[in-house]
Every structure is written in C-alpha cells, then in structure tokens.
Amino acid sequence: RHFGEVRAKDEIGTAAEAALPQLTGALQDTDPNVRIAAAVALHAISPVRRSEAQALLTKEIRSQQNAILLANAGNALAKMGGLTSDLVPALQEIMNGTNDYARLVAAGALLRTDPKDAEALACLLQALKTPANRFASQPELAANTMGNLGTLAQPAIPTLTSVLTNTNRNLRMAARRALKKIGEAPAAEATVKEADQKETPKR
C-alpha cells in the first residue's frame, strides 16, 4: 500500500506538494522499493529538491546488492539525467549478469545515458532476438525498454520491424508500440501501418 501511495504521488506531480512531509518520510523507509519510488516522486514534485532525489538514488546504486533494485535505481537516475560515469560500472556488471529483467533495465539506463553505448544496444537487440515462450518475457521486455528510450532506440528499428511477424501476439504488440514511440522514422511508420492493416479484421 505504501509503495502504491508513493507511485500515486509521482503521477499526480506538482499537485501533490502538500504530501511532501509524508514523502520525505518514505525516503527513509526500510523497503528499498519505497525509497526508490519516493526519490522518483520527489524529483517530479519538487524541483528544488531534485538534487536530493538524485543523491538518494546514487546512494541506492552504490549500496544496493539486489540486481533488480540496483537496475531500477539506475534507470530512474538515468531518466533524470543524473547517471554519472562513476556509477556506470555497477550497471555494466548488472547488464552482464544473469537476471534477465535487471540486465535489460540496466542496458536501457546505460543507453539512455550514452546513446553510443554499443554493448548496451547489443544486449537489448540480443534479448529481442531470443525465442519467445508463450509469455514472450525477455524479448517483450526488450521491446518495451526500446520503446521507452524513444528516438534513442532508432538503431533497433530493423530488429523491431522483424519482430512484427513473430507468432507471439504480445511480442508483436510490444514491437509495434516501441516502433510508434521511437519517432517519425519513415520505416517505422510504414511498417506499423502495414502491421495494423494486417491485424484489422475485414468486414
């Protein structure tokens, strides 16, 4: 419940300024998920405390042992533009680890920070090419991560385009969403339009 409340404050934005005292308390919560979410919300709600939010996420990255939590903190910090070079090795280690979710989130954070990071891009592309099970899982997460990167993921357009013919519908849909979010690249727009026409039942 506490975690959900923190996320809600983030979504409300500046309208939640009155809740800053409670949010400040959440920054010291014993649950790292709550601390990370509170830092993200603080950054969104209070411009004057953004440096504090970034410092808290930096602390989480430096002290966190859990791969998923570390990756989430790194991704949040990268979105704020605060992922400094001294934190990159920690995320690179996670990206080269064994937890699929953490690996892809870390790769997304690294690519957001440095669009020329070939290793991070390769990690996402490889995951996208991984055979999908009936739940799609890893390749679907890779597609979603690329979509969240927006235009930074333009080098992935050919691979995302090839996924549009995958037999897993969830993965196809994730690829379509990603292509739409990437931007105005003609190849993406044309492919999405064609995919839409093929999936729309004829009357």
Strand content: under 5%
Number of helices: 12
Residue windows where pLDDT falls under 50 for at least 5 positions: none
Gross morphology = globular
Order of helices and strands: HHHHHHHHHHHH
* Average pLDDT score: 84
Class inferred from helices and paired strands: mainly alpha
Portion of residues within helices: 55-70%
Distance between the termini: 46 Å
| Count of β-strands | 0
The Rg value, from CA coordinates, equals 18 Å
The main β sheet shows up as:
none
Describe the structure.
- This protein has about 200 residues and is an all-alpha fold.
- The protein has 12 helices and no strands.
- The longest helix is centred in the first third of the chain and has 14 residues, at about 30-45.
- The relative contact order is 0.07.
- The mean pLDDT is about 85.
Note the main attributes of this structure.
203 residues, mainly alpha
How would the blueprint of this fold be written?
Elements: H1 2-12, H2 20-26, H3 32-45, H4 50-63, H5 67-79, H6 88-95, H7 100-113, H8 118-129, H9 138-149, H10 157-163, H11 169-182, H12 186-199
Summarize this structure briefly.
The chain is mainly α. 69% of the residues lie in helices and 0% in strands.
